[in-house]
Design brief:
Two copies of one chain form a homodimer.
Chain A (H helix, E strand, L loop, with lengths): L14 H8 L2 H13 L3 E2 L9 H14 L2 E6 L2 E6 L1 H7 L3 H5 L2 H12 L5
Antiparallel strand pairs in A: 1-3, 2-3
Helix pairs in contact in A: 1-3, 2-3
Amino acid sequence: MERTPSHPEVSKFNLQQVLEALVDPVRRSIVTQLDTACEDIACGAFDISVSKSTATHHFKVLREAGLIRQHYVGTSRMNTLRRAEMDEALPGLLDALITPQAQGMSTSGSAGKGVA
Amino acid sequence: MERTPSHPEVSKFNLQQVLEALVDPVRRSIVTQLDTACEDIACGAFDISVSKSTATHHFKVLREAGLIRQHYVGTSRMNTLRRAEMDEALPGLLDALITPQAQGMSTSGSAGKGVA
């Protein structure tokens, strides 16, 4: 079984759309989990606390922004981080979001607006 | 005359809040104009096509996220990019947004959602 959804080419990547994808803490968590895992992850296997339909929406936003590539293995929709292509289009952006500093802040960030 | 608004300390910078500030193309433009100018710019001297009250809101969001520092010189509110402090808190993030690639995309980004 092979049903591959459409993915934008690198030349169509758009900073505005990428930032709108990454501004959401759940989507940013999906990206960092993929980056840490260094392997494909099935949609149902992420550590995210949202409903299945909400997760599906987040994966769609990430895919349409060019951040992830999705393909089916059997009935599982697998996700791959398009790391090299994103680094080519927007050098340094993903690196900046996975620094120890950024990761430390992410925790407080998703818990609420911590800055006065 | 000296009326300095409050600014967060570096230790209070928050990735979520910084990304929410930078996801707006007008605010991103203010940041890149400050980075390019390498000097303070008065609120009224930026090349942005929004009303004065909207601009004031954008400057407030940037200030509260820690991206800019504001101070008065006479009746002019001057803006300084907190580049070194932001680089300390979130290494590489501002660099990633001012690469030639990102700048090239910014134009199409602010014109609308260019990606299918």
